Amino acid sequence: MATEFGQVYGRPESPVAAMEGGLGMRESDGGGGGRRRRGLPTALRAPVEGRHWREFAYLLTSMPIGIALFTVGVSLVSVSAGLLVTFVGVPLLAATLLLFRGVGALERMRARVLLHVDVERPEPLRSRGGATSWMGAALKSGTSWRHLLYGLLLFPWSLFAGIVSLVFWSAGWSMLTYPLWQWVFPTYVGQDGIQVYGDATHDIYLDNAFEIGAVAAVGLVVTLVTPWVVRAMTTVDALIVSGLLGPSRLASRVVELEADRGTVVDSAAADLRRIERDLHDGAQARLVSLAMDLGLAKEKMAEDPKAAARMVGEAHGEVKTALQELRDLARGIHPAVLTDRGLDAALSAVAARCTVPVRVEVDLPRRPAAATEGIAYFTVSELLQNVSKHSGASRATVDVWRSGDRLLLQVVDDGRGGADVTAGSGLAGLMERLDAVDGVMVVDSPAEGPTRVTAELPWRE
After folding, report:
1. Is residue 383 a part of any domain in this protein?
2. Containing domain of residue 148, as a range?
3. Residues 164, 55 contacting (CB under 8 angstroms)
4. Angle at CA 29, nearest 5°, toward 23 and 35?
5. Which of 333, 363, 390 is the last residue of a domain?
6. What's the domain count of the chain?
């Protein structure tokens, strides 16, 4: 940035930096407003936290569920494959896939309750009705086969993860509490403690104070490590659930494109209504008045030439005003300077009309596609309008540059701040329009300012 407050922020070198590091975005602190939880450190708190016990319960319950799903899945698929030579195998296989889709719904619920992993529901089966249509839809659905694959893969993974977690948990807590139950051995077993070695001539027991303390210390270490082992296992579980039981990438992309298409259509309709309103209330009304004035002047030409000349002079001024309104309207649709000279000149013209001094810096190796230029132009134009109307700023900067395959733009002002995207402002609509073209916008506007808005668009040529 060319100004001091712009230099403080600096320019993110990549889209990732712009969206995370460059924008000052932080991981959620649970709504604490930056406050840190006091008390025991996380490493000491983890073994007794509710999250650890939920994750551990998930791993333990996964083992019987995995065994049951594997048994049912292998049995039904084997029987279906053997009966494919007859008509019975086809509906049985389709029923198996539908059964596992139902199991997938229960597994997504279990992951949501115990792991707090919210996996979206996959796309439904597309059937025209009737048993044959349902069978065909189930057999052709990739989602159904992914649910069956989940049922078959859950067994070996859950067995491994459950046993490893159970060994860590039981070994850690039993060793940590060994000083509390060590008395059981001399009282009921007839030996001094746990036997770690023994042969015909020599026995080793954990029975003196040092050995008991060492066992407890090792148990403490294992107990503190166990939550992270369990968390690593459940992270894999979360990936399996989201990857196999959630919507496919293609389906998610289709839903996203459908939503984006609706946004684009709504935006285009709103722009058309705005243009129609501006024409009707502005230039059209002025031209109608001009036509009436010229008609009156024509009637007065023979009777009162001076009055007619005066009316023609007034009509001439109205023509100039109407032409200026038409130019402004055309500039709002697509400015000629943008087509002829590119973003640098077009944004400089927008900055010149802003009510506060604006410094513009465009650093692009070449011009992007016309559509990308247009979106960037109108984004900056709307942001500068917000600066003029709402910020109370004394200066602002506009910075545009390319990073990889993204076009980034940043508007910074030293105003009062407090811009809220969720308050139904124009920023929310602007964010939706950018999202419709695979763009992203992030607003950083603390209460005392300054406000910084960074947007990125896909670079196309």
Report:
1. yes
2. 45-247
3. no
4. 105
5. 333
6. 3
Both 62 and 96 in one domain: the answer is yes
Q: What are phi and psi of 190, to 5 degrees?
A: 80, 25
pLDDT in tens, 425-452: 677 778 777 877 778 888 888 887 788 8
Q: Is the pLDDT of residue 338 over 70?
A: yes
pTM of the model: 0.56
The reply to whether 95 and 181 lie within a common domain is: yes
The domain boundary, picked from 305, 333, 361, lies at 333
In a domain, 228, yes or no: yes
pLDDT tens digits, residue range 131-162?
A: 777 788 888 888 889 999 999 999 999 999 99
One domain for residues 224 and 318: no
Mean pLDDT on 378-403: 86
Q: What is the pLDDT of residue 18?
A: 44
Q: How far is CA 457 from CA 380, 397, 405, in A?
A: 12, 19, 9
Q: 366 and 315, same structural domain?
A: no
